Amino acid sequence: QVQLVESGGGLVQAGESLRLSCGVSGSTASLYAMAWYRQAPGLQREWVAVITSGNSTNYADSVQGRFTISRDNAKNTVYLQMNSLKPEDTAVYYCNTFPAGLYDADYWGQGTQVTVSS
User: Fold this and answer.
1) DSSP 43
2) How much of the chain is helix, strand and coil, in % rounded to 5?
3) What b/e string do you get for 41-77 counting C-beta neighbours within 10 Å, with b at 16 or more?
């Protein structure tokens, strides 16, 4: 059974950086495009960044130029480097396949909370 374990969140001030990690167990991260998603209170979960199995990347307009997604297939881990954080980046961040649910429909990990104070 696949497990996605997100970590690295925390409380930071605007302008600071965080690096999130997503460990994949029970399957191989390199099989699929992987993405980071986020969900702020009262809002729907949204896609933030994606990396294909060939390491092509794409970003939501709101994070373009500030966030960088990468993957280490040997470690079965996907990362999200977040720089120049803004209060509007505050959310719970999740990783999953892109599109979501290719490992297991409706499965999401516990996520990691990112809180950015102004």
Assistant:
1) S
2) 10, 50, 45
3) eeeebebbbbbeeeeeeebeeebeeebbbebeeeebb
pLDDT surpassing 90 at residue 31: no
Contact between 13 and 116 under an 8 Å Cβ cutoff? The reply is: yes
DSSP letters along 63-110, please? TTTTEEEEEEGGGTEEEEEE-S--GGG-EEEEEEESSTTSSSTT----
Element (H, E) at 23: strand 18-25
pLDDT tens for 35-89 read: 999 999 999 999 999 999 999 999 999 999 999 999 999 999 999 999 999 999 9
How many CB atoms are closer than 10 A to CB 9? 19
- CB-based burial of residue 118 (10 Å sphere; 0-12 exposed, 13-18 middle, 19+ buried)? exposed
Q: What is the DSSP letter of 4?
A: E
